[in-house]
Amino acid sequence: MATSRRMRFVHSQLAWMVATVLVLSLLGSLSYEFFFVLSLLGLLVVTELTAPVNVTPEWRVRLRWLTLLGLVGFAALTLHRIMGLLPPEVIPW
């Protein structure tokens, strides 16, 4: 039973990511940054929607590390975009 729930999670995440690629392609704004951010959003949504009520399986505990890694990547991406918007005089290096 745990394997079927795990596979349901994987299929849901994969469907979200494929839908993200299709929608971004149709809008003409497919980029790595948009795909990463929307995939991370999908990971957070699918994780919450498939969360068990009583018992947390071991694979869901490891999923927290993936979520943390995604949030660190999002923070780095956001910082990179903000640094690109600032004038060169503001950045001390």
From TrEMBL:
InterPro entries assigned? DUF8044
Q: Which Pfam families match?
A: DUF8044
Q: Where are the transmembrane segments?
A: 9-28, 34-53, 65-83
Q: Which domain of life is it from?
A: Archaea
Transmembrane helix recorded as keyword:
yes
Which keywords belong to this entry?
A: Membrane, Transmembrane, Transmembrane helix
Q: What protein does this entry describe?
A: Uncharacterized protein
- The scientific name of the source species is Natrinema zhouii
